[in-house]
User: Fold these one by one.
Assistant:
Number 1:
Amino acid sequence: MNPLAVIGRIFLDFLVSVGRVSVFTFNGVRHVFAPPIYLRLTGRQMMVIGYYSLPVVGLTALFTGMVLALQIYLGSSRFNAENAVAWIVVLGITRELGPVLGGLMVAGRVASAMAAEIGTMRVTEQIDALTTLSTNPFKYLVAPRMIAGVVTLPVLILVADIIGVMGGYLVGTHKLGFNAGTYLKNTFDFLETLDVVSGLVKASVFGFIIALMGCYHGFHSKGGAQGVGRATTDAVVSASIMILIANYFVTELFFSGQ
Amino acid sequence: MSNDAKIALRGVYKQFGKKVVLDGIDLEVPRGKSLVVIGGSGTGKSVMIKCVLGLIRPERGEILIDGQDAMKFSASEREETLRKFGMLFQGSALFDSLKVWENVAFGLIQGRRMDRDQAKQIALDKLGQVGLGPEVGELSPSELSGGMQKRVALARAIAAEPEIIFFDEPTTGLDPIMADVINNLIKSCVQKLGATTLSITHDMASARKIADYIAMIYKGKIIWHGAAAEVDHSGNDYVDQFIHGRADGPIKMEVLKP
């Protein structure tokens, strides 16, 4: 086959996917703002995204904070800047590692579950059944997940930030020999509101991406169990890549003028 | 469209890729009567029903429901029209995440905003009509046998006392006795409601039992249409071959050669 034709076909398929995701996003967001809002379902999704993800995100944050403290100590000791450990840990966690690693962990846990659940509903005609029962599937399935993702992930990441900083504190005070009071003073003296807010805004964006990709791939799954499996994989991969891309642009937005 | 046709299809055409599935379907479902469409697998029966429900949009043709062109409905008009419908899906399509009674009451609670307690009473009553006790209402759909799931799906289809009920392969996958139980339930429920019904099946025993009229679909076209009593004397070779289940005849199975 002509290589140019192959490239053209891939490009066209990409454009079709972008168009489909755009239309899906528009429909999903439209139903977020149009009543009725299913509060019970939204609450259930908040539990799934937030509460049930807390152990895995908390552990990730804890060990990331601990490793970060060790690595920064080893690096900064080469030029006698060990005091930088506390504030580099807190900035690293709140600005980047908390939201990004937390987002990726939630993408792995939640986007896959959403895609599997909605994908199974698609291939077993449950989504068609919703329509015949006068219930819009976007309003019933997509909108609650989008709301839950946008609202819950910042709360989850705030908790993860605190756990991550605590991880750094534990290593700093118990292993590296920092004074506890000094470590905490260094942590809070250099921390600005924008550092935390930018991380929480990122978390909110990532929450939206996770819900969008989970729902989108579930909605478009076909071909039985194999199709649902593929949708699950695609949801995690696409959500993870989009999180990393969105992370750059949100960072650029917040810190480009500084 | 004749005055007593509840649903009429005129030249409905649908193709997926290069495959033409509906090739100009013309069909009328008389008000208050039961029409059964028979035909082999892959002849377009399910697609036809999904076109009427608006789950699939045909490329061309007219679909009239109570004389109104369903192809021109807005989203809200379609939602309003769907309140007239009940649908029994081939695989039951019960919602896994809900209890049995919540499945039956779903259209009442979500679609018609009925109070949950009142909807539960109706759901338990409908479960009783299909021979299931109130204790079944508290179970999850996954705890039920295939026959019980069909009965629950039937209860859900009739819960809102719709004017039109569609049955998609109501007896597929059931043993002959359970199939006859389902046929009897369909007949009694429909008679009680006075509903117009459109069923699709390749089970001739079921078709003979529940039909007032029978139509046969082949290669996306209606090739015969008449009263149920006439099906044995249709004078149509395709119908004869199908109802007697003969391998030889004008219908050739497309078997891929190794």
Number 2:
Amino acid sequence: MADVKLTDVGKTYGGTVEVLKGINLDIGKGELVVFVGPSGCGKSTLLRMIAGLEKITAGTLEIDGQVVNDVPPSERGIAMVFQSYALYPHMTVFDNMAFALRLAKKSEDEVKEAVHAAAEKLQLTNFLDRLPKALSGGQRQRVAIGRSIVRDPKVYLFDEPLSNLDAALRVATRLQIAQLKEQMPESTMVYVTHDQVEAMTLATRIVVLAGGGVAQVGPPLDLYERPENEFVAQFIGSPKMNILPGKIVGTGEHTTIEMDGGGRAVSSVPSTDALMGASVNVGVRPEDFVAAGEGDYIYEGKVGITEALGEVTLLYFDAPAGEDPTIGKLAGIHQGLRGQVTRLTADPAKVHVFKDGVSLLYPDGKNVMVEPH
Amino acid sequence: MHPAIQGLITIVIGVGGCIGYFYFSNQFLDKVLFPARGPNAGRNINRANMIRPWLFLFPAIVALGLYLAYPVVETLRLSVTERIPGGGSEFVGFANYAQMFSEPKFWEAMRNNMLWLIIVPAFSTAFGLLAAQLTDRISWGNVAKSIIFMPMAISFVGAAVIWKLVYDTRPEGQDQIGILNAFWVAMGGDPQTWLTIPYLNSILLMIVLIWIQTGFAMVILSAALRGIPEETIEAAIVDGANPFQIFFKIKVPQIMGTIVVVWTTITLVVLKVFDIVFAMTNGQWQTQVLANYMYDKLFRANDWGVGSASAIVIMLLVTPILVWNVHNARKEMR
């Protein structure tokens, strides 16, 4: 098993269109790293570059300490699971899984042993002599995973493996992948998805890609609790974090912000005196909002729509046309708030402060701009 | 009258006649036969709509019946009759077939046809597949494809004339205008009359048809190759397949259905091959094929019995392949 190291990796199409630049990543042995990002951010391209299906136009890629930029895919010690499963339609499940081993001139006994072991692991033993077209979507995906397992690769690459499955099957297969990872703690996995839940539940670390670069790398809860910039803050979590403008009026261990919409926010993020009077954005996750009593409030607005889900109620505040509404997610049932002017506040520990798109916690962080599609 | 004007008038009458037929027959159906008014308006509309499809099919059914179904039955009848000197004919059972089977020329045609049957579809499909694969990813692939496809636009007789020039022979001492002889002489050989050398001449005739049919095979197979999911090929690359293994183990099996359809379609053309042989050797020097044999018997020897019998033999050979071909083509469409 191996680690994967990307140094200043970039991808340019036709010498002019730059889709990825300056990617630095160190994926440790036994990690399950998930690439997420908005569509078109290049996450699949990056995975395909690791696989060797796309040429790396800048930087170096090392697998197991060896530069593999010009090594063909089959010799990189990787296996890939494709979004569309990519099973060979004319081969039985057994032959699909055996294909790579037979190409590698393994003896038929070895092939049989490896395929049966993988089939056992994935509950495919009863389907070995079926053709892919006689399988359900979930079974096909398991065959695709089995096909990579038999090769015993150093690195597993998953390209949105669950996006062709229906919701229930997706949850089941997600659990299966998690179990698989448990069984093979030594194997390194790189997983691309646009589904946040997959990323949060499977990853040891998440890589958020945006604007052709890495926006932030870290364990899932780090990204949730301490986003380095507004982009990551809004990308991780659903509904997305509210961003409200204001001005710093108090600095020190705590930062106090006077909100442009009236109200006052206190954040446990420290600030220097130099920031006094600076225009900033306050970020509060909908689930961190609580109803404000008579005291201070961060946001005041008229509730336009309520969505009562039982355990929580979502409040959508009226917003000027074209702007995202501020959203609150309060525990319990609060349908009565519809049409009411309501004040919300939050625990200072849950209040994020961003200056020029970058969190005050990470003043050296970079502001990621994502062009709207 | 100028022939061009005659042609123009024919077109106007033909097309006008078709339009007129559909228009007036429908008018007659709706206005006179089952008018959509009066006490039985609803019933009349239903009846008119039941008849309408047949109105549209009628010309096609008549034409097919007259030019396809009737000739089959008539050929079958002729193949078991014999002309009586002085007029009329008599039933002779399988005498025509027996006579035909005893002729060495028939067996020569039969043998040649089988050779055509094996060689032409195999090479056309193979070259077509090769051309489709090789032109798939290159920038000038479409130009190459157009050139390879072009022979399809030439009639068999036209192609025969072109290739007769390629195989042309001039007496020794004169410049050879046939490319094949030009090469041959340049390589140090003596000029050959290629089309008179048995077996080789049959192959030379087959090359003409391969030249024509490769374009057809290429176009169909090229479309099929494009339909292969890209990810299965990428998966094969990751699995460690080299380009040949990808082609033979991943691509070809996935388009096998289309290959079979192309193969059988060309087989049907081959079984009926006539023009090329007729125009180039007319079956001499052991190049006879069934269709030309039939033509010889029917129109040169005026022996309608044996001629019809050979026509029936061709039909019997074609039918199972045709059925299989249609079956496969429908399977592909699903």
Number 3:
Amino acid sequence: MNGFFSQHYAAQKSAARRLSSSPLNTLLSLIVIGIVLALPAAGWVMLDNLQGFAGNLPGVQQISLFMMVDTGEKEAAEIGSRLREANPGKWWFVARDDALKHLTETEGMGDVVAGLTKNPLPDAFVVEPGDSRPEVLERLAETFRSWPAVAHVQLDSAWSRRLDLFLRIGRLAVSLLAVLLAGALVAVTFNTIRLQILAQAAEIEVSRLIGATDAFIHRPFQYFGVLHGALGGLFALLLVAGIGRILAAPIGELFALYGSGFIPSGPSPSQAGAIVGIGAALGWLGARISVAIHFRG
Amino acid sequence: MISVSAVTKRYPQGLEALKDVSFEIEDGEMAFITGHSGAGKSTVFRLLAAIERPTSGSIVVDGQNLAALRRGAIPYLRRKLGLIFQDQKLLFDRNVLDNVLLPLSIVGLPAREAVRRARAALDKVGLLERERVQPIALSGGEQQRLAIARAVVNRPSLLLADEPTANLDSESASQILDIFRSFHQVGVTLVIATHDAQWMARFSSRVLRLERGRLIGDNT
């Protein structure tokens, strides 16, 4: 077992030595891998932020239940009880007096409200469903419509559907881009390993002659691919995080103009791990293919 | 330990390097394979080291028939052999110690033990004080001694050498000879392919004489 670990340790050291032996080449290829990985990763993070922003917009993915104007506290309590039972997500009650007060405070509406002889607004419930899929929202709205004393249920489902479709198209585009660029990354690693194999021809020949197995000879190249890809992923992560940091403030201001308090963020820890992990996996794949082809026969 | 039986080696271009060659070499024996250039000495070396396979016949080394040996088993056989090449096959981007450490890293020996064994092998060939030197800075004789240290560091019971004194001056060749003698004295089996007649005169060892691929003499 000691031999097994020491051979893997030696292969890792050899891979690191090969990477550091030509720093300029290594840096250039890491820049290429970093940019290749950063493009879909940035798209991924951007879509996540967009979803967060949309979810945080007032009125979006919310269902408003307007009661009949002449309903009293009993009916409101009944609706509250049904909501508690259905547990669709977050919900709260907006009393008609509070709604009028809010309307009065709205710019340009003060004079209009002052001209009213009585409060025309109904009591209302606002529901923010935990599951924001359009079909779920519509099903909930349909249920609410069937409840007694509910005069009107408002759901901006068109907006919700547009957003959902936009996010789906965005995810699909990012996925396609990721597949294309993954192919490019595998090709870059394949070629780097091919050059490494040519450069190490003497060492490979001698190692074979003195008893090295195929696994012993292939292993450093595979570790090289993993290390190469992981470092490229790390570089991509720094790029995405750096760009995110630069753009966070102006995008946050833009979001605020739409009434959203959502603060854009860079890659989450799980996304960061995935970027580095995917880089390492693609590097390994490129190395594996290169080794399989170049040592065939 | 070595049994070569009716071995013929024919290359794809039609050249017949060995024709119906048979001999046996016992454990602890020291044998020279000699002959003029093109006689088939290096072919015997390459067949015994499982670098090539015979066209027909059988070669048994350490109980294994090399003609039928599966590809995956060859590295494990080579670990039991010490191979010394005419062109040494040193790695010039590694220092002397790292060259000797290579076979030990292949078998997965822990680093501390590997360094201890590599230094012992270098000491045996008189290169311990030059362990940090790059091979390019060594003389031809020193490079060959380094190749011997690398070949013996795994403590093989069989040493195969192909023209180990070619291109060496007589003093360096003599040092190499003394090193081989010391290994022979501790029971290592040696098979040395050489065209250098003065070697055989200094040993009372067995000489297998090849000519145009045929074994024409086998005497002590």
Number 4:
Amino acid sequence: MFVLATVAAFPVAFPTFAERVKAVATLQSFAILLGQPYHAETLAGFTQWRVTTAIALMGAIWGLLTGTGLLRGEEDAGRWEILLAGPVTKARATGETLVGLGAALIVMYVATALGTIGSMRLPGVHYSALAALAFAATLVSGAAIFVAVGALVSQISATRGQAATLAAGIMGVAFLLRMAADSKKGWEGLLWLTPFGWIEKVRPLRDIDVLAFLPMVALVVACVVATMALASMRDLGGSVLREGEGSPRVGGWVIGPTTLALRLVRGTAIAWLVGIAIFSFFSGAVTRSASALLADSPGFAQVLGRLGVRAASEAYLGITFFMAVLVLAVLAAGMMSAVRDEEASGRLDNLIVRPTPRVVWLFGRVAIACLVVLLGGVIAGAATWAGSESQHVGVPLDKLLQAGVNATPPAIVVIGAAVFVLGVGPRLVSAVAYGIPAYSFVVELVGSLVKGQDWIRDTSLLHHIELAPAAKPDWGQDLVLVLIAAALAVAGAIAFQLRDVSYA
Amino acid sequence: MATIIETRGLSKTYGSQLALRDLDLDVEEGEILGYLGPNGAGKTTTIRLLLGLIAPTAGGATVFGLDVTRDAPEVHRRLAYVPGEASLWPGLSGAETLALLGRVHGYVDEAYRDELIERFDFDPSKKVRSYSKGNRQKLSLIAALMTRAELLMLDEPTAGLDPLMEQTFRECMRESKRARQTVFLSSHILSEVEALCDRVAILRAGELLQIGTLAELRHLSALTVHVTFGGAVPNVADVPGVSGVSVEGQRLSCELTGPIQPLLERLTRYDVRELLSAKPSLEELFLSHYGGDGGTA
């Protein structure tokens, strides 16, 4: 759909060649996020640039969550014990799970290929069927690579959480490397060191580089072979990495539902916050070179005019905070999914059969989620400042801290919406919580091309946030978002208090 | 004697599926009530209703005279619950879990907790993830018992325990009874119910079939009679209260409800060599109610 929408919208948004050339100049500002545009004045070049990295990133997140969920989460839940009690060896169970995941990827590929082939019927499309098929393969490759990475880390990790964190860390480093490669002239060679670089290099619709598929295939095969080898060698529940020991004392700081929630989110939250800090520091550290790329583009002055900023560095940093908004929203979605999981698993019962009102428990979880998001925003601002100061960019700390805080309201809305769904349809919490940022991201990318249909972009949360520090934060608008979130949360909390506890 | 649990017309349906219908039940202070029923009979639904985890579709329940839904936190302050399958936080150690649950409850008899840890042979230093099912169940039991709560709501509490630990559990229950604690014990282990419970409630397909002491239930049930004759075997099918007559050689077996005198009068006219009669065990009582279908929810 994303491909079809982009292909359909391009000739409408940029009907003349002159407009396309002008638009390409502005695309450079997004190079650090979406990769270097390549012949983006053509429909094929623009489409592959606009869609590839975004879809590959979403696919990678799905892949690592699914891979670790099926290959470690099921084992953690004890379901593999039942499976392996039958005439099934661990290697065979692992192999069959991988085959199942492979089948899911094939289904995904076929669906994507139908979209890319279908796009050939749209006006102005000149790429071949082979190119369309290669494009579909490129789009699915992020999911395939991180399913394989997820499968491998599941064999060496002690828990599903540890596996998902490790896989997410690998994905984060891979994405940062890709960003580094696209941040400065002369660093393009780094693209060969990261899966996201290989994906960017394929360019299936315009001057395809088939060689870039090779490292992807090699990595997937290597991960699968290593996964099978480790699966057949290790005990059920065994791992290479160790999990930290629990406290043998009857005491400690976990004294109630809220401190318990802190303890439960601690590991994941720290991992996310460290990731945000690294990402933000790096984004800040390349401000000078990325801004120089921006300044070189002929359309830059026009962009600056639209954004109302005075410095190239601030324009660039505004775009990097767009990424922070997304990351914080996904972080919020993850924390709210964990809240629902507490109820579905029956662990919540341990607290609410004691004198803890349900809403008190929920309030603690929501407060912690909001605090972590806010902390994430502040860390994003501070780390971006630290990175940019290391290059003497000169954007003041308070401006970047404000930009970080300004990045949090969409995540707060995700939390509010998740609480509402927890109250009225608890089984949909994860789908809604993750769906909101995913939908908003796609709408932002597609909606910007659709003229005269502003209401579509209005449905995106990301559209209601100013790209600070490129633009001044609109605190009034932010407050409206927070109030909407609060209203949703209150309604959800009331419904949650009144409804039956809902198990998985 | 105070009524601790009282339900009137307590009902729960999920869509068109009946889980519990018109439950009228009173549990008195210091009593151990055995709550029996096959899988899906509505036992766990009853407990969840009494805990306020789910709301009734009709009727209502009070615990300590308080509404279980409206006054849930106050009710929960005075009770402790052990689920059939303990779902705990895998990343916490046993010690951390006990500390947390104790603090949340508000009161812990620390000396008794340490004693329970020893008696159940439980190692609290390990993470919950590494515990076997039995050890997780021990952890749940210790967390409940250490509070010395006035009411213990136990849903299959010995699932996964070995026979030695089951004995320890029974000792704890006897101590609870001596301490005037009230126990609502849902169990499949009939010997456990027979050994511990003052009264037994039998549930089928969401409906309460019988409730009473074991003696009362036995009184209501048929007496099993086996008679061996030296000569001819009499026909007793027409004797009032007799049913299920079967004859195998010189041996006659039948069920008897009501007074035994008419049957004895008939039997003594013949050459009786051996006469055995037995009250049904709880297992026989239980099985006599579940010859056919089981539960609904």
